[in-house]
Amino acid sequence: MNAAAPSRERFARLDALRGVAIVWMALFHFGFDLNHFGFIKQNRIKNVVWVTADVHYASATYYEPGRAQFTGFTPFWEFVAGPINAGTFGPGEIDRTFGPDVKYSSAPAGMKQNRPPSDGMQYFGLAKIDGATDVLSVSLNDLTGKTLYSVDVKPA
Question: Is residue 1 assigned to a domain?
Fold first, then answer.
């Protein structure tokens, strides 16, 4: 019996997207390091927003030193969405170190993990800065484009 060898075909676009995701992940973690070691606060950088993907759900979380165990940082937002075509997982228990206030999470409590794309629980986000007011408008959306959560982040 001769079993067929597994396919080794590569998909250039998919590999490119994976590369972009790795770069974003590295930048995201580098940014947290900058915040943790005081760079952002010491240099009075305001309006920090983190955009995160490839976590298999959507959420919007505001981090505030007044609620945090570690208080040496300026408040910031984290917006999570994606991926658009993969199994859906909910978030694990959130780390309380930076005083998170979860404003929205697409994953219902007790949700079965690794839901298939056919369940329609895929998400994307949109962000727009108004040129006249400098207000950042962020929305988290489902596959149909329906807005599930939105917020306007005013400049400090």
Answer: no
